[in-house]
Amino acid sequence: MEIKIIVGDIAQIEADAIVVNLFEGMEQPGGATAAVDEVLEGVLSSLISRGEIKGKFGEVSIVHTFGKLPAGIVAIAGLGKRQDFNVDRIRGITGDFCRALRKLNCHRIATILHGSGIGGIELEASAEAIAEGALLGLYGFTKYKKPEYEDIEEILLAVREKGKVPILETAIGKGKLVAEAINLARDMVNEPANCMTPGQMAEAAKEIAGKYNLEFKVFDREDMETMGMGALLGVAKGSNQPPKLITLSYKGDERSEKAVGFLGKGITFDSGGISIKPSEGMNEMKDDMAGAATVMTAVVAIAQLKPKINVTAVIPATENLPSGTALKPGDVLKAMNGKTIEVISTDAEGRLILADALSYAQKLGLSPLIDLATLTGACRVALGTLYSGVFGNDQDLIDKILKAAEKTGERMWQMPMPEEYKEQNKSEIADVKNTGNRYGGAITAALFLAEFVDNTPWVHIDIAGTASSTKESGYITKGATGVGVRTLVELALSEAKSREAT
Ligand code: BES
Ligand code: MN
Ligand code: ZN
Questions:
Q1: How far apart are the first and last CA of the chain?
Q2: pLDDT tens column, 368-400
Q3: Residue 49: what pLDDT?
Q4: 468 bridge partner residues
Q5: Does the CB atom of residue 376 touch ligand 1 within 6 A?
């Protein structure tokens, strides 16, 4: 799909559909909506006064023009209440109107730059959000099934001033590239576990490295043994698929040896192992490598945006399966940092593989560390499916991440890590055990990870609730969401900027 700028009056554009908008509660259309209304001889204002077009956020109203305009359809995008409006809502409504128009067989659509000039939103922020919203909202996982609708081939962004074209093109370029990285993450997560094994994940990383000129490394079982990664190896024991520890490095600052570490949980299928999960819904556990996909594709976007910073993604990848050689409840493992772990549940495997990945990242000297993981059902219970849980040992870093998340419209919420709950991870026979009690499961999981972090600033983001969606809404489509990519990319960009300033 192409996204282009077109200078001129939206009402006169030859396209299958043109898109204008309305805030909720407005009795009279304004701006481009008013101009289109005039050509349509008041049809829009009468529909508004009849209450048929309300402008509620996410509402897409379709009006046919029957020859009054070059475009056959006018879509009126509901922006919601003016006071609730923000850039993320531009993304959202764009996803909604793009899907609505695709269903109507539109191939070429034109839209105004929704929201620009409102509440300080710049023209280019709107263009970037529209590019993201369109690509994300039109995403589908079509590898194994023909798509239901034909593609929208072209989106034209209508602007009045010719002078704005270059900056808008840059903004569209950035939006497209980030959205494509997110869609790549979605593809990887939506891929069934038989086609996204640890080996295939390593292959994907290698391909990415070749394409974007990144450094790629992969470690096998024997390497892990040499490095003493007993926790990761313990989880991998039950599977015939060999585990992989993958690193992908972007070097944007040649003068520095330092690099930020992004870690992602890469369980390509989580059956629970011997502590097996109920069969209902177990298929969803192919998503358990969403953290891995996010960190990998965030690096893809960063490699194209080229901030002056170094980033290394670290991905422990394995299946979690039951078998005659599988890890058993009660087993004791020795992690890379020397700590012993009593395995109470083999289904609390994410923290085991991340324990060794965290040690390895520290051995590489990566700092700060940010891990993303579909770690606990408890986080989904606590925060639902909109908010990811944020934990960490460094409030400055947590604040930076929350700020990056806020800026990019990814909802994240800081969770507490009270000392008292550490009690829950105490084992009678080992340094720690891998499960706490019934309550506060997302927190005890984070406290477990903290056992494997020394003094490095570290943040853990639990995306168990947010990594996939059962509903289609705005720029979120069914299945994998690619959550976290925007926040990590924004963090890398803002870090590079602030370091340059000092
Ligand atoms: N991958 C799951 C967590 C999960 C659950 C992700 C639902 C997405 C949706 C994780 O490995 C797991 O099984 N966690 C257990 C931990 C428990 C055994 C302490 C859980 O949350 O039940
Ligand atoms: Mn599990
Ligand atoms: Zn898991």
A1: 40
A2: 999 999 999 999 999 999 999 999 999 999 999
A3: 97
A4: 480
A5: yes
Nearest to 376 by CA among 298, 448, 459: 448
Tens-digit pLDDT profile for residues 466-502: 999 999 999 999 999 999 999 999 999 999 999 888 7
Tokens of residue 347, six digits: 């289904």
| C-alpha to C-alpha distance for 19 and 98, rounded to whole angstroms | 10
Annotated active-site residue 308? The verdict is no
Q: How far is the CA of 235 from the centre of ligand 3 (A)?
A: 11
Token duo for residue 351: 């923290």
Please give the single-letter amino acid code of residue 468. Answer: S
| Tokens linked to 484 | 């976290």
Length of the chain: 502
Using the Cα atoms of residue 134, residue 135, residue 139 and residue 143 in order, give the sign of their dihedral: positive
The SS3 call for residue 371 is strand
Q: How far is the CA of 265 from the centre of ligand 1 (A)?
A: 12
Residue in 277, 403, 478, 499 annotated catalytic: 277
Whether 244 is a known active-site residue: answer: no
Closest to 245 (Cα-Cα) out of 98, 363, 376: 363
In whole angstroms, give the CA distance from residue 368 to residue 466: 23
Residue 214 token pair? 């990144």
Tell whether pTM > 0.85. Answer: yes
Tens-digit pLDDT profile for residues 318-350: 999 999 999 999 999 999 999 999 999 999 999
2-7, strands of its sheet edge to edge: 2-7, 154-159, 108-112, 17-23, 73-80, 60-64
Residue nearest atom 14 of ligand 1, based on CA coordinates? 376
pLDDT band at residue 266 using 50, 70 and 90 as cut-offs: very high
3-state SS, residue 89:
helix
Is 349 a pocket residue for ligand 1 (Cβ < 6 Å)? yes
Residues 6 or more apart whose CB falls under 8 angstroms from that of 177 comprise 301, 304, 305
**Total H helices, total E strands in the chain:** 14, 20
CB crowding 387-401: b at 16 or more within 10 Å, else e:
bbbbbbbbeebbebb
What DSSP assignment string belongs to 400-421?
HHHHHHHHHT--EEE----GGG
The pLDDT of residue 119 is: 85
Tell me phi and psi for residue 499, to 5 degrees.
-70, -35
